[in-house]
Specification:
It is a single chain. The protein is about 25% helix and about 35% strand. The protein is of the alpha+beta class. InterPro entries: DUF6470.
């Protein structure tokens, strides 16, 4: 007799996991920096340079003289002429004193007084040389003063901005479990 057979087939349950891992983001804002600096001041002061040119002696060579100098020179020449006249008169007086010795003093004195002075010709330049012009130069003085101001620096740091989203995992039933029973084969005694 062919007995019936029971076939049992099972399917196991399967679970599935679905995960989401969004990326993390980090943003770092730049620091805020403020720099302030006042303008420095600079002061420059100068004194005037001075140039002195004295041409008095050069002009005197060209006979361009002031009235005071002219009067001083005239007085000096007059004094010299007076002294020469006194010396000449004294010398001629001494000659006249010796007339009794038989000297021809009157003729000698007349000859001296009657002669014309010899003329002299000289070549000259006006002024005689450049040493007659006096040049004096005083350069200017320069004073420089600079004030330096220090910069003011302020830095404000900004914290990083970090964004971390949650990671999620979803667990679900991908396949249900189940059992199948089937009968195969001959007859079944149902009297039992």
């Amino acid at each position: 007799m062919d007995l019936a057979r029971i076939n049992i087939s099972t399917t196991q349950a399967q679970t599935g996991i679905q995960s989401q891992r969004p990326p993390m983001s980090i943003h770092q804002p730049q620091a805020d920096m403020h720099i302030d600096q006042e303008f420095g001041s600079i002061r420059i002061s100068t004194t005037a340079s001075q140039l002195f040119i004295d041409q008095t002696e050069a002009f005197a060579d060209a006979d361009l003289k002031g009235p005071l100098r002219r009067s001083d020179e005239f007085a000096a020449r007059s004094m010299q002429n007076v002294m020469q006249y006194i010396a000449k008169t004294t010398q001629q007086g001494d000659q006249m004193k010796k007339i009794e010795h038989g000297t021809n003093a009157i003729a000698s004195i007349a000859k001296q007084n009657g002669e014309r002075p010899t003329k002299q010709i000289n070549y000259g330049t006006v002024p005689e040389h450049m040493g007659k012009v006096s040049i004096d130069y005083r350069p200017s003085d320069i004073s420089i003063q600079a004030d330096r101001s220090e910069p003011t620096i302020r830095v404000h740091k900004n914290d990083p901005q970090i964004h971390i989203p949650r990671w999620e995992s979803n667990v679900y039933l991908q396949q249900k479990n189940h059992i199948d029973f089937s009968v195969s084969g001959g007859s079944i005694n149902r009297q039992l």
